[in-house]
Specification:
The complex is a heterodimer of chains A (506) and B (367). Chain A is 33% helix and 25% strand. Chain A is built from 18 helices and 20 strands. Chain B contains 14 helices and two strands, in the order αβαααααααααααααβ. In chain B, helix 13 packs antiparallel against helix 14. Classes of the chains: A alpha/beta (506), B mainly alpha (367).
């Protein structure tokens, strides 16, 4: 197809969930040869719109036209048969299978009798065409997150996708990997594909797209050429008001050492060494940021300092007392708060209501064998008010709440006990601008009140803003600990990719 | 009408579905009722095909189960073991422990209670019955603890182990009633000597409805209060919903698996105790007619709600009693099992509709 020709057109797409309008008469056009960014805060309706395009949801009304023909999509399989493929935030890969097996799996062209060599050859040629490095014989579990993403992209191309949709593709990548990804997406567009990616980060939009559509409150507020806009205009469109970009303030002086790690080692779930001789300390009123590509031991680090994972060597000292290999319960009573990576999967119980979820860490403090339900309700109501948590009712299952509000509730609960040490993993992942700022503000308040904070983050800007020092992790080791200045940005990026200091020349 | 439109409307009509965010509240009442009707309709077709009048049969079933004071009392007699075992099974299911072993735990409870009754026949009632109660519950609980320990410590699949132990328990009771415990005055029937009067649970009036009913009702209330109001019940709810969150909150999953399985087996054991002490007044071959398995259906249909378990146990008890009534009309007993199966099948299938929205669509059509 010719460049700039309309590939897919969505007309007046409307979709509501139990009365909430997620998409309100949204028009959206994706053209051949174009990388199109879909920008918006969380809950703006980006995912819903793309779910309609991939057959996950059926719009209540509206029309989807593909190459000038109206289509109706009933399932993702239907969509891929029309050449529409989506790479989800959480990859849908079978970990013990090889790259080739994953790609052949479920493709409608795959015959009953497999010819793996043929599939492999095709994968290699696709990968070369778009400048992606991938080993077709590697098992998926051996691959880095960035590589797995490439497998997902190739999987869609192999199935004949001409419209490729990526949901928050950069969230899990290093800065260098992000550049590579945008390079690849550009090549795909050049080859005539329509590429759409969902994001809420302006920087990426400016760096990686040709056209931008901004959604706000379920409506398309603007579709603009990237070359004709800038970050401020986009921010204004996205939030609907001027951004108050007042920097957050850091106050107070560090106090005594709260957490001390001495040559700690630990294995991951696969039985491989995930942490290697980790030694560091965090003082009261200090934030230690951990930079690194996801999967380099951050999760294990968070788990050992909260008692969720056993160490295989070394010592964990909290306020002078040895806590090595004690139970999570003892860590909790020592005043260790934990904001886990997977807030709905670990930090909260989706099917229970807000009162029950707020009880999770302090139910043991209730006297006797019974729960003090009145007290718990009061506490829940107070937290909802203090932290401005939006929910339909504290008696509804919390899975109905939005990500930002869930995170606020989690923080409210964790900070309620005046923790000595806070372990927080990707605290703003998936949150919109407003919620992100609120969460960061809360972390700084805790710092001011004398909590020692371990902040594991995937966002270097966040670390620059919040951390007092930044430790870079690569393959389970702390490569170096640096002060949070933008002069160090490149060094940090290289350390994240595994280059030692000497090679970097610091 | 243009050619294009004609083409569109002639598209193939197909089914598609999407997930609901929350189960629809009115559908979660309407669908089970509709499902039961569908099951009765299907079974009715089968009955009609085999030469019976389905309405007549259903009428007889209804009449037999609920149509008279006697019918209701017999229905209650069946409901007691179903409710007790159902409460136990549901407690384990809460924590996603698939205790399929209520049948075996029932047998062990019956065995232990019988041992007390037969070994110390001269105990006064006020000591005899509590001792049998404790022995029955303890034996059922310990029988469930056998698979619970490997499950808690090593992650051994409890579905298989609890099921297997059923056969062991049933054969153990058979060994006793065919062998060492057989009543010498029993004309070689596989049953023990009758218990002394002190070992018999009080009954209501002239019916067979025994004190086990109180066990079930009180049990349901206690389970409800424990789950909703106590710290420990809170732990069970959290572990059942999200083990990762439970670990994160410092709860001991190992300890709770063992405790809950012990209690689960305890309730099933109590069902066994109340059956020998309230109904048969002796231990005998086939003391449970599959109550432990039907209890799984009871637990599932009541969505693990302890009060619903009482209601569902009563209804399924009625199905059993009503089934006996139709046998006098020449309907094979297997038909009752078939209807029971059909009802479960439709209810479980119907549950899908409360969680998913199903709609028709025309391929290529503009919605």
């Amino acid at each position: 197809m010719k460049k700039h020709q309309v590939m897919v057109e969505m007309k007046k797409i409307t979709k509501s969930f139990s009365g909430n309008l997620a998409n309100d008469k949204v028009d959206f056009i994706a053209r051949c040869g174009e990388v199109h960014a879909l920008l918006g805060e969380n809950g703006a309706g980006k995912s819903t719109l793309m779910s309609a395009l991939t057959g996950l949801y059926r719009p209540d009304s509206g029309e989807i036209r593909l190459r000038d023909k109206t289509i109706e999509l009933k399932s993702p399989r239907d969509a891929i048969e029309h050449g529409i493929g989506m790479v989800h935030q959480h990859f849908k890969l079978v970990k013990p299978f090889t790259v080739t097996e994953n790609i052949a799996l479920g493709a409608s062209t795959t015959p009953f009798l497999l010819n793996m060599d043929k599939v492999e050859a095709e994968i290699v040629s696709l990968a070369e065409k778009y400048g992606m490095k991938v080993d077709p014989r590697a098992k998926v579990w051996q691959l880095s997150v960035g590589e797995q993403q490439r497998v997902e992209i190739i999987k869609m191309l192999y199935r004949g996708a001409e419209i490729l949709i990526l949901d928050e593709p950069t969230a899990v990548l290093t800065p260098q990997e992000v550049d590579d990804l945008f390079e690849t997406l550009g090549q795909m567009a050049n080859a005539g594909c329509a590429v759409i990616f969902i994001t809420h980060k302006f920087k990426e939009v400016m760096a990686g797209s040709d056209t931008i559509t901004v959604l706000r409150n379920g409506q398309n507020v603007a579709t603009v050429k990237t070359s004709e806009t800038d970050q401020n205009k986009l921010a204004h469109l996205m939030v609907g008001r001027e951004m108050t970009a007042k920097p957050l303030e850091k106050k107070g002086q560090p106090g005594e050492v709260v957490l001390k790690l001495d040559e700690v080692e630990a294995f991951n779930d696969k039985g491989m060494l995930a942490l290697q001789s980790i030694s560091t300390e965090i003082r009261a009123g200090e934030i230690l940021g951990i930079a690194g590509v996801a999967g380099n031991g951050q999760r294990e680090l968070a788990e050992i300092v909260t008692g969720l994972r056993e160490t295989s060597a070394g010592k964990i000292i909290i306020l002078g007392e040895d806590y090595t290999d004690r139970s999570p319960k003892e860590y909790i009573s020592a005043g260790v708060a934990h904001v886990p990576e997977d807030r709905l999967g670990t930090g909260l119980v989706p099917n229970l209501n807000a009162v029950d979820n707020i009880l999770l860490k302090n139910y043991r403090n209730h006297r006797g064998h019974f729960l003090d339900l009145k007290e718990s309700r009061k506490l829940a109501e107070k937290m909802v008010e203090d932290f401005q948590i939006k929910l339909s009712s504290i008696d509804d299952p919390i899975k109905l709440m939005s990500g930002g509000n869930l995170q606020k509730m989690l923080l409210a609960r964790e900070f309620h006990s005046e923790p000595k040490l806070i372990v927080t993993v990707y605290p703003v992942r998936g949150l919109d601008i407003g919620a992100t700022r609120a969460v960061r503000q809360l972390l700084l308040e805790q710092r001011e009140q004398g909590a020692a904070i371990l902040l594991i983050s995937e966002d270097l800007d966040e670390l620059m803003e919040l951390a007092d020092k930044i430790a870079v992790m690569y393959e389970g080791e702390i490569m170096d600990i640096l002060p949070p200045t933008y002069d160090n940005l490149e060094t940090i990026g290289l350390l994240m990719a595994g280059s030692k200091c000497e090679e970097v020349g610091v | 009408m243009s050619n294009k439109q004609a083409e569109l409307t002639s598209g193939k009509l197909t089914l598609a579905w999407e997930k609901r965010q929350l189960p629809s509240p009115w559908l979660s009442v309407a669908i089970p009722i509709f499902s039961v009707f569908m099951a009765l309709f299907l079974s009715g077709a089968f009955l009609a095909a085999t030469g019976f009048n389905p309405l007549e049969i259903y009428g007889a079933m209804l009449d037999g189960a609920f149509g008279s004071a006697y019918g209701i009392s017999e229905t209650l007699v069946k409901a007691i073991p179903l409710a007790l075992a159902g409460l136990g099974v549901a407690l384990a299911f809460r924590m996603l422990l698939w205790n399929i072993g209520a049948e075996g735990q029932f047998y062990m409870g019956a065995f232990a209670a019988s041992w007390v009754a037969l070994t110390f026949p001269d105990l006064p009632t006020q000591i005899m019955l509590p001792a049998m109660f404790l022995a029955g519950a303890l034996a059922g609980g310990l029988w469930a603890l056998i698979p619970a320990i490997p499950r808690a410590v090593l992650g051994v699949n409890e579905t298989i182990t609890t099921l297997m132990l059923n056969y062991v328990a049933i054969l153990w009771v058979d060994y006793l009633v065919y062998g060492p415990w057989r009543d010498p005055a029993g004309f070689n029937f596989p049953l023990t000597a009758p218990f002394s009067a002190a070992a018999q649970l009080p009954v209501y009036g002239t019916t067979r409805v025994h004190f086990g009913l109180i066990f079930a009702l009180v049990g349901a209330v206690i389970i409800y209060i424990v789950l909703q109001r106590t710290k420990w019940g809170y732990e069970i709810r959290v572990i059942g919903e999200n083990q990762a969150a439970a670990r994160y909150a410092g709860m001991s999953i190992t300890k709770n698996i063992m405790l809950v399985m012990f209690l689960s087996g305890g309730f099933a054991g109590l069902a066994g105790m109340s059956e020998v002490s309230g109904i048969t007044h002796r231990l005998q071959h086939g003391i449970s007619s599959g109550y432990g398995y039907t209890a799984i259906i009871v637990a599932w249909l009541s969505k693990l709600n302890p009060f619903m378990i009482i209601v569902v146990a009563f209804l399924l008890g009625g199905l059993l009693v009503g089934g006996y009534n139709t046998q006098t009309m020449g309907v094979p007993s297997a038909t009752v099992s078939m209807i029971q199966g059909a009802i479960l099948f439709f209810l479980l299938g119907g549950e899908l509709l409360t969680r998913y929205r199903i709609y028709f669509t025309r391929k290529g059509e503009n919605s």
